[in-house]
Structure formats: C-alpha cells, structure tokens
C-alpha cells in the first residue's frame, strides 16, 4: 500500500500552486509515495473552477502526511485556508491526525512580505491536531545561499508577480516534499508493525 501525502494549497495567482507542484515532485521522488494535490473552496460569489480537487475531510483523515500551502495575506494564511481548518473539529475530536508529519509552504509578492509569520500561523492548527511539524534543516546548502524564498520553517517563494521559482526555491521545495514523504513512510511503517 502506497504512502499518501496530501499537498493542500490555496492559490489566487498561481505561485502557491506552483510550489505545491514542486512539493508533490519531491514527495513522488520517494519510492512508494503518492502526492494528492488538493485545494480549498473560495469565498467569492463568482464561479470557481479549481485546477485541483477540493480536499475532503475523509481524504485528510486517511492521509499519511500533509503539506499545507497558502499565500501571505497580511502576514497570515488566507481566509479560505483558515476556513477549511475551522471545519475540522470532528477530526480533532477523533485524534485522526495525531502523529502524522506535516510541513508548510507559502508565497509572497515581496521578500519581507510576511512569509515566516504566515508559515507560523499555518502551523498552529496542525499542532492543535497533534501533527509533527517538519521544516527545512540548515544541512540543506540552498538554505544558506538563497536570495529569494526558503526558510527553516518551510518552503517559500518571492513572486514579484511571477510564478517562476528560482533554482534555490525549487531545490528547497522539492527537498521539503521528499523529507515529508520519507518521514511519512517511516511513521506508517511504525504504525503497522
């Protein structure tokens, strides 16, 4: 049975979706791992036709790991992403996400746009659910040299109104996805033994 890692994101202009795709590539670079790209519902009145399916609570309940991404909205996760987590009380009561690994990723239009505070706010519901948070360790060389996105808290991208990631951003994002998949596989092996 494969290890299933949900890559959940909200994206308005495409940058966070691009990061999600690179996280998924990192996840799927690990043998036996499958990335499920999912998004959340928008609040807008206009018809919204998401590129990827909207995540169900049942999919979240049964995942082996989670990568969560949101654009920076005033130093916080987006309202649609926050609204999704506000609907997960039943999973919290059931302890369904306890001891599952998770990581976060974000994008902003400027270097000092609030990436790290946004990553921290995304971690809060994950910690309340008992998930284990993974970041990017400084043993990853690109974390020392990046002039764009990438933090020890998780993957990030400085869009400057471009969806194209820098080579360092791609390296760090895919590394985080791979790390998440490896830990999810190890944890899944422990729970079945």
Automatic annotation (TrEMBL):
Keywords assigned: Flavoprotein, FMN, Oxidoreductase
Pfam families xref list: FMN_red
InterPro entries: Flavodoxin/NO_synth, Flavodoxin_CS, Flavoprotein-like_sf, FMN_Rdtase-like_dom
Keyword Flavoprotein recorded: yes
An example molecular function term from Gene Ontology annotations: NAD(P)H dehydrogenase (quinone) activity
Domain of life: Bacteria
Required co-factors: FMN
PANTHER family named in the record: FLAVODOXIN-RELATED PROTEIN WRBA-RELATED (PTHR30546), FLAVOPROTEIN-LIKE PROTEIN YCP4-RELATED (PTHR30546:SF23)
Name listed for the protein in its UniProt record: NAD(P)H:quinone oxidoreductase
Originating organism: Vibrio zhugei
Gene name of this polypeptide: wrbA
């Amino acid at each position: 049975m494969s290890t299933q890692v949900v890559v959940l994101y909200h994206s308005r202009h495409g940058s966070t979706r691009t990061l999600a795709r690179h996280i998924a590539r990192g996840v799927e670079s690990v043998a036996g791992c499958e990335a499920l790209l999912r998004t959340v519902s928008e609040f807008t009145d206009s018809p919204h036709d998401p590129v990827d399916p909207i995540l169900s609570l049942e999919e979240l309940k049964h995942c082996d790991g989670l990568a969560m991404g949101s654009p920076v909205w005033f130093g916080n996760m987006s309202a649609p992403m926050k609204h999704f987590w506000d609907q997960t009380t039943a999973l919290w009561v059931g302890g369904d996400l306890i001891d599952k690994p998770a990581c976060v990723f974000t994008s902003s239009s400027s270097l000092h746009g609030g990436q790290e505070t946004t990553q921290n706010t995304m971690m809060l519901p994950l910690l309340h659910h008992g998930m284990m948070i993974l970041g990017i360790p400084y043993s990853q060389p690109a974390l020392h040299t990046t002039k764009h996105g990438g933090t020890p808290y998780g993957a990030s991208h400085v869009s400057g109104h471009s969806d194209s990631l820098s080579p360092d951003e791609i390296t760090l994002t895919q590394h985080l996805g791979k790390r998440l998949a490896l830990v999810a596989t190890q944890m899944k092996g422990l729970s079945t033994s």
